[in-house]
């Protein structure tokens, strides 16, 4: 399980916008300006621009 309280503290490292956890996609999605998608690996969010999928 990903810690939802931790998720609430996170912001997008690229644009500092809000993020959303998509548990069915195992991903963290920026819902701010950039829309980058960050992977969740073994329940650990990888909030790194280098690992993000760019839209
Ligand atoms: Zn962003």
| Associated small molecules | zinc ion
Radius of gyration: 10 Å
Shape, per Cα inertia axes: globular
Strand order of the largest sheet: 1-2-3-4
Low-pLDDT residue intervals, each spanning 5 or more residues: none
Name of the CATH first level? Mainly Beta
Annotated CATH topology: N-terminal domain of TfIIb
Report mean pLDDT, rounded to a whole number: 94
Distance between the termini: 26 Å
The biggest beta sheet reads: 4 strands, antiparallel
Which structural class best describes the helix and strand composition?
A: alpha+beta
Helix share, percent: 10-25%
Number of domains as seen in the coordinates: 1
Strand content: 25-35%
Listing every helix as H and every strand as E from the N terminus to the C terminus, the arrangement reads HEEEE
Number of DSSP E strands: 4
Which terms would index this structure?
55 residues; alpha+beta; N-terminal domain of TfIIb; 4-stranded antiparallel sheet; 1 helix; 4 strands; globular; binds zinc ion
Notes on the protein architecture:
This protein has 55 residues and is an alpha+beta fold. The protein has one domain: N-terminal domain of TfIIb (Single Sheet), CATH 2.20.25. The protein is built from one helix and four strands; from the N terminus they run αββββ. Strands 1-2-3-4 form a four-stranded antiparallel sheet. Strand 2 (27-30) and strand 3 form a beta hairpin. The longest helix has 6 residues, at 4-9. It is globular, with a radius of gyration of 10 Å. The protein starts with a helix and ends in a 10-residue tail after the last strand. The mean pLDDT is 94. Bound molecules: zinc ion (ZN). Zinc ion is lined by residues 12, 14-15, 17, 30, 32-34, 36.
């Amino acid at each position: 399980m990903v810690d939802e309280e931790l998720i609430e503290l996170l912001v997008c490292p690229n644009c500092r916008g809000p993020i959303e956890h998509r548990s069915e996609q195992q991903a963290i999605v920026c819902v701010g300006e950039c829309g980058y998608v960050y992977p969740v690996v073994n329940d650990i969010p990888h909030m790194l621009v280098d690992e993000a999928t760019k839209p």
